[in-house]
What we know:
Blueprint: E1 3-5, E2 8-10, E3 23-25, E4 28-30, E5 43-45, E6 48-50, E7 63-65, E8 68-70, E9 83-85, E10 103-105, H1 186-195
Parallel strand pairs: 1-3, 2-4, 3-5, 4-6, 5-7, 6-8, 7-9, 9-10
Amino acid sequence: MYQYLNETFRNHSFDQGSLQDGELNNCTFEQCSFKGTSMEEMNSIGCRFIDCDFTGAMLNASHHKGSAFTNCKFTGANLFVSKFEDCKMVGSDFSNAYLDGISLLGGDWSYTNLRHTNLSRQDLRGIRFTEADLMGCNLQKSDLRGADLSRVQLSQCKLKGADMREAIVEGIDLKSLDLQGVRMDMEQAVLLARSFGAKVGN
């Protein structure tokens, strides 16, 4: 098991490397490449990954706490049962990544591409998803209370049984969604009614 502490790497290639079962503490990786790298069961705490490429990387069962992955590419990466706790993921792309069993606990997932991800039954309370692409996601029975869903792409999402109370839904075309079985608060219900042309109030 390895451990990196307070280290900085720029334009470094870790491609096809073996970084599994280790720990990264307060490290910075800027424009680094982790293509095809084995990173299973590794932990990152308070790290920053900026413009990094994780294409095809194996991150299954990895755990990240308080780390930032900004504008990173996870195309085709394996993130099976990985956990992201209070992480900043702004602008990262998860196209064709294997995300089954992934856990999102708090944090900022604004501007991410999470298309067709299975997030059913997840505790997504308070997460910031501003302008994220969640097209085709399975959000059935997920807890989205207090989440920021401003201008999120939710077309083709499965939402049955989701709890959206107190979530920010600014810029979402509610009438285009299948909201059967979705829990909404009074303010959201009024917005939905108005989107169908109803006049609400005295």
